[in-house]
Protein: Melatonin receptor type 1C-like
Organism: Aplysia californica
Amino acid sequence: MASSFNDVLISGQDATNYSINFSQSLGNSSDVGGGSNLSSQDRPSSTALHIGAVVMLIALLWGLFGNILTSFVILTNKDLKSTTNVFIVSLCINDILNLGINNMIVLISYFMMEWTMGLAICEMVMHFTVLFMGSSLWHTGLISIHRLIVVCFNNFYKKISKKAYTIFVLSFARIVPVLFIITPHLGRMSQFQPKLIRCLARKEFGLYTMLVSVTLQMLPSIVLIVCYIAIFIKVFRSSSAIRATRKREWLRREIQVTKMFGMVFLLIIIGYLPYGIVRFIDRKLELSADFYVGISVVYAVANSCNPIIYGVMDRKIRRYCFRALGLEESCMRSDQQMKKNISLRTNGEPEMATETAAVSTPGRTVAPTATTVAPTTSASSSLPPPCQV
């Protein structure tokens, strides 16, 4: 496999001439797009590369820290053992690999303002981008089917094997993207583009690119959209009946989980869509190289933000993360002060201390009684405190 990579030619140049130094004159370097000489407008500026590298470094460090912390608290606390959280850990692992491999390599090239790692690594990054992005999208697509079954066909969900479905999701979401790397043309599919500081698929592999887009992007997106529309219709039609039963809190929790994975999907799309749209429109690469650095940074930042969604939208995960960092006590004091301020704004008197005690222990939360919580009318009072479970 290594020898096949070494045989690749970059627009007629020997593949051993890998280094593209943007701090030196490139008048004699040939552009892979058409053989014309590169001018200063055909390469990113040092300012754009350095700013982009700093932003990417911050996002990379946060993304690795957040995903590792989220995985750690889920795997080490029995209260967080659930099918939903297994999916979250799987997504975290996917993000950690993507950040640690793809984003790290791109970050290094931005800091150095040159590509010195060879065409083999360049093509590897191209394929790994497809692999991790496709895996994340299929995760969200198959999880949306899971949410549809839970919310709309709960009786059926109680009968199926949770373990079997979990194994199917985790396997399918990774096997399908891997299939696009198993090709006899591996190692001869890319060409280096100095303007983008990355490798692109050669034009003769247009069918391959189209299949990747359809299979790894469009299909999981369509699955998710259809499932979420069905869930919305189901909830809208049955909301009044559910409010009159004990399933109200259950439905609220399931809808919150569904929203969380929907936000993860939107974040993936928001990160990738600008770059995908621009590349589709600007097929001749006529836009500024600095602009491409900017949308690449947007994609890198979006890859790092999933832990924020998990923490904001899942109070148990958030609470255990605070506990793992030793911030639980200060966070609980903040909760108590927030509740007191809300109570003073709405009723003119502080809330009873028993409510704070009711949320002090994760996994054993006792719902406050009607006598301990004064009725509130402010919209802000419905917002959960950051440490509440």
Summary: Confidence is low (pLDDT under 50) at residues 1-40, 350-383. The two ends are 51 Å apart (CA to CA). The chain is about 65% helix and 5% strand. The chain has two domains: 2-324, 330-382.
